[in-house]
Write a structure and sequence with these properties.
The protein has nine helices and no strands. It is an all-alpha fold. The chain has one domain.
Length: 257
C-alpha cells in the first residue's frame, strides 16, 4: 500500500506538477506557447533521465506503463489548456491560488513558533524549578523547529524574506531583476527541487516503511512524520518559484508590449 501511494505521487509529479512549472517560461513565446512548452517538458524529461543515469546515488526512472499513461494524460490536458487560453493566461490563473496556499501555510507556521517558544519555556521551568526532564518535550522543540523552517521556506521566497547576497540586484531595473529571477528559478531553484524530490522519495519511503522513531525509549516515535515534511517543503518551494517566475515573465512581457 505504501509503495502504491508513493508511485501515485511520483506519477502525479511527473505528469502534472513538473510540466506545470514550465508554464511561466513558455508564456514568453508569442503564439507558440504550446510548442515551446512541449519542448521544455521534453527537455526536462531528457535532462532528468540523463542526470539520474550519470549520478552515483540516483536511480534512473522506471518507465512503467502507469507512469507513461499518467504523464501522457497530464501533458495532453495541460497542452489542451494552453491551446485554449494560452500559456500566459493559464500561468496567471494558477499563480493566484498557489500564492494564497503558500502564504496560508507560511502564516500558519507562526503558531508553530509560538508553540515552540511555549514548550521551550516549559522545559526550562520544569528542569530548573522542579528538577524534571522529559525527553519527548525536548524532541518536540526539534520537531517544531524543523517544521517552521520547512513549511515557511516557500513563504519566505514569495515575500523576499530569505537571505539574499547581492551586489548588483538591488540597483538593477525591474526588467533586469525579472530576468535574474526567471533565470535563477529555472537554472537553480527548479533543478534543486526536482532532484531533491527525486532523492527524497526512497529516503522518506524507507522511514515510513519501518515507522522510524526516536532512538530514546521515551522519545517521540514520529521521525517518519518529520521526514515527510521534506517533500512538502520542496513542493511549496517549487510552487513559490512558480509564482515568482510568473511575475517575472509578466514583467518581461510588459517590456515587449
Amino acid at each position: 500500500m505504501l509503495t502504491l501511494f508513493g508511485d501515485m505521487l511520483n506519477w502525479i509529479a511527473a505528469g502534472v506538477f513538473f510540466p506545470l512549472m514550465m508554464l511561466p517560461l513558455a508564456s514568453l513565446a508569442r503564439g507558440r506557447g504550446t510548442i515551446v512548452w512541449l519542448l521544455l517538458v521534453a527537455g526536462i524529461i531528457a535532462a532528468s533521465t540523463a542526470f539520474a543515469i550519470l549520478a552515483v546515488d540516483l536511480n534512473p526512472p522506471k518507465w512503467t506503463a502507469e507512469l507513461i499513461a499518467v504523464m501522457a494524460l497530464g501533458v495532453i490536458a495541460i497542452a489542451a489548456a494552453i491551446q485554449s487560453v494560452g500559456a500566459r493566461a493559464l500561468a496567471e490563473r494558477l499563480s493566484a491560488p498557489i500564492e494564497k496556499l503558500v502564504r496560508l501555510v507560511g502564516r500558519a507556521t507562526l503558531y508553530l513558533v509560538m508553540a515552540m517558544a511555549a514548550v521551550q519555556f516549559g522545559i526550562v521551568i520544569l528542569r530548573y524549578v522542579f528538577g524534571l526532564n522529559f525527553i519527548a518535550m525536548q524532541e518536540s522543540v526539534t520537531y517544531l523547529h524543523g517544521a517552521v523552517f520547512l513549511l515557511a521556506g516557500g513563504y519566505a521566497l514569495i515575500t523576499d524574506d530569505h537571505v539574499r547576497v547581492d551586489i548588483f540586484y538591488r540597483e538593477a531595473s525591474p526588467h533586469q531583476k525579472a530576468f535574474v529571477d526567471l533565470a535563477g528559478t529555472y537554472l537553480l531553484l527548479f533543478p534543486f527541487c526536482f532532484v531533491a524530490l527525486w532523492a527524497a522519495g526512497p529516503y522518506v519511503g524507507n522511514s515510513w516503511g519501518v515507522h522510524e522513531g526516536s532512538m530514546e525509549q521515551s522519545g517521540i516515535k514520529g521521525v517518519y512524520l518529520l521526514k515527510s515534511l521534506i517533500p512538502i517543503y520542496l513542493t511549496l518551494l517549487a510552487l513559490a518559484g512558480f509564482v515568482n517566475a510568473t511575475c517575472a515573465a509578466e514583467t518581461l512581457k510588459s517590456r515587449n508590449v
